[in-house]
Amino acid sequence: YIKQFKKNYEELTSRLFKLYNETIFEKKLPEDMSITWNKRLLRTAGYCAYKRCHGKHVARIELSTKVCDNAERVRDTLIHELCHAAVWMLNQRTDGHGPYWKYWARKSNLSHPELPIISRCHNYSISTKYTYTCTQCGYQIGRHSKSLDTTKKVCGHCHGRFELMGTPGSKEGTPRTPNKFALFVKENYGSAKKTNSDFKHKEIMQLLSQQFAEKTKLDS
Ligand SMILES: [Zn+2]
Ligand SMILES: [Zn+2]
């Protein structure tokens, strides 16, 4: 099964890459760009690594086998990371999810209206207790313990510093933005309870996390 999955998904990614390179990136991304699958990647759906090789900007994408476990996730994650790769290779810079990244994300959505709005975070990352946020670009990473040495580790997108956010996230696993979500719950719990007075606490929390997910989708 795993083998089959791997084969199918490798085919899927290479087909999608060819398509998007044509329709979005004007065939300017190198055809042989490295896009690999990593089964140990658990905290994010994918990432894009940059380097300079003989003065040339090269990028490599890794996708998480465990997080990208359906075709939509593969597609959405791939396109998100391709936008990072394009910023590095075509615009020759890193800007996290800044204006250059947003330009490519918008272009992706214009060329492919069938895609969901490309968001800054991979909303479905496996949840972790502690979230570190880049103070420059807002990129977030999760850790299961307070293990990140913020004096050493810098953001892979913009080399900014990380900062530990708020309190540990809830078990509901609302990923990535536990503090914003907590605030959202605080503001909306009362009214949600009023309009759905027969709901149990758990159901209200489910409702709120749905609303929150929709809201953050619209915001980004
Ligand atoms: Zn990103
Ligand atoms: Zn950053």
Automatic annotation (TrEMBL):
GO terms classed as biological process: DNA damage response
Ranges where the SprT-like domain occurs: 10-165
UniProt xrefs under SUPFAM superfamilies: HMG-box
Top-rank taxon: Eukaryota
InterPro entries: HMG_box_dom_sf, SprT-like_domain, SprT_Zn_ribbon
Coiled-coil residue spans: none
Pfam family, any one: SprT-like
GO cellular component, one term: nucleus
Protein's name according to its UniProt entry: SprT-like domain-containing protein
Species in which this protein is naturally found: Lottia gigantea
